[in-house]
Amino acid sequence: MTMDPHANPHPHPLDPALAAAEAVGWAVVRLDLDGVRTRARLMDACAEAFGLPEWFGRNWDALADCLRDLSWLPAAPGRLVAVTGWRELEQARPEDWDVLQEVLEEASAHWREVAGGPPLEVVVAAARA
Length: 129
Prior knowledge:
44% of the residues lie in helices and 13% in strands. By secondary structure, it is of the alpha/beta class.
């Protein structure tokens, strides 16, 4: 038996949806929050996952501004953000988890309302029991 070196050793239930989005040209952002328990680490995780520009100020307003602009990203017909591993953050910093959800929801709503703008959709993986 041969192993595919590109196979994901830890498949996730969202993988088929993410692969389908990528197959039609959408940009996919995997925001994995596993082990994130502080706001500073959360901002670092967002910067890494989104590939945020150097001018990202690592605060809520800066994150919201970056997600409403997106001019720093390559063009795509749509963008899909998959948030996983969030349970530790929710337990350690519930207020930050709530704000992150609000920022993502507002960014998604913004892109739905922008005429001709590519959509920004967000999925939050269900927490494992």
